[in-house]
Inverse folding.
């Protein structure tokens, strides 16, 4: 029996994302692997091949021929047959979001581009990156720079062997910064240090209501183009990195990594176990923002948003007309779910 059909039969309350075209029947068995082609989050075709043993355990996953153990754009790592099926279906659905967009704003031809420009409509994309999907900083850096490739910005990722809090000179250095173009740097009363337990660091940030992020805008896309505006919070100046901070080689691993944007003179201390980087690219690739998020909080939020999209997302699809009866049924279902009643 098709292992994906079996997994869904054992989970009768499973609801796929309404946009996906991935079904158990889309997988075919060839050369000992279950194979299918689906869309990536960015809308590109991806070839998947999963080897599943007689016990129903996923023993190997290949994406476009490469063996992978995880998918960085997911909030959580898939492990079971159902989780891998759902991951492929979910990413396929995300890759089809453009199908729900007014066709006037899609396409690469000159006339469409001019129409978008005239209406002040610009390209926008979002790219979450869960750092726990990488064994060391080197593949993470390559993955991040592939996301940034359409923009003038590039990043480096390195392991931080040591940033001891005992050596910190808080009058001159280690407090994290608020950075903004044409303004003096501000300070957050919380220094960077590898002495922190990663989850504890992010919990403190959330308790204080501090958001760690960077955004930059460019009008020049040249090789050495400087940003017009830069803003960063709970960050650090790369040029002011204390001499006692020990940075390792890209192939090494450590409990903390340094995510740097050399062109912007900005550095973030990030935990590979606990961090999700959420990149948004706006303004036809002229504006880049990255948020440094606590992975556990991000995963909880994504589960709630995903549950909503699976249940109600089809109602927000402007490309599909909905009847009054369908809308009324949806309202009744929502009211019943919260114990309410439709007013007469």
């Amino acid at each position: 029996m098709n292992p994906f059909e079996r997994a869904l039969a054992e989970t009768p309350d499973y609801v796929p994302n309404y946009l996906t075209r991935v079904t158990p029947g889309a997988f075919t068995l060839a050369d000992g692997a279950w194979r299918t082609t689906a869309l990536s989050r960015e809308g590109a075709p991806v070839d998947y091949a999963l080897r599943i043993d007689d016990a129903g355990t996923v023993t190997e996953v290949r994406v476009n021929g490469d063996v992978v153990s995880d998918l960085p754009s997911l909030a959580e790592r898939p492990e079971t047959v159902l989780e891998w099926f759902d991951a492929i279906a979910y990413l396929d659905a995300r890759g089809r979001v453009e199908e729900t967009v007014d066709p006037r704003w899609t396409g690469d031809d000159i006339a469409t581009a001019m129409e978008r420009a005239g209406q002040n409509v610009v390209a926008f994309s979002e790219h979450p990156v869960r750092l726990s999907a990488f064994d060391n900083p080197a593949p993470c850096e390559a993955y991040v720079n592939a996301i940034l490739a359409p923009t003038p910005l590039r990043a480096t990722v390195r392991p931080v062997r040591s940033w001891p809090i005992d050596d910190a000179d808080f009058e001159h250095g280690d407090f994290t910064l608020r950075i903004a173009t044409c303004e003096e740097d501000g300070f957050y009363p919380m220094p960077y240090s590898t002495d922190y337990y990663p989850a504890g660091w992010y919990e403190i940030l959330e308790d204080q209501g501090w958001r760690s992020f960077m955004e930059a805008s460019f009008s020049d896309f040249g090789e050495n183009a400087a940003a017009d505006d830069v803003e960063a919070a709970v960050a650090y100046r790369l040029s002011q990195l204390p001499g006692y901070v020990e940075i390792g080689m890209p192939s090494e691993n450590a409990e903390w990594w340094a995510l740097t944007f050399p062109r912007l003179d900005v550095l973030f201390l990030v935990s590979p176990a606990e961090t999700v980087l959420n990149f948004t690219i706006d303004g036809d690739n002229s504006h880049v923002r990255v948020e440094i998020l606590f992975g556990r909080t991000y995963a909880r939020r994504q589960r709630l948003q995903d549950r909503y999209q699976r249940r109600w997302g089809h109602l927000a699809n402007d490309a599909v007309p909905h009847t009054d009866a369908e809308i009324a049924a949806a309202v009744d279902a929502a009211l019943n779910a919260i114990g309410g009643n439709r007013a007469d």
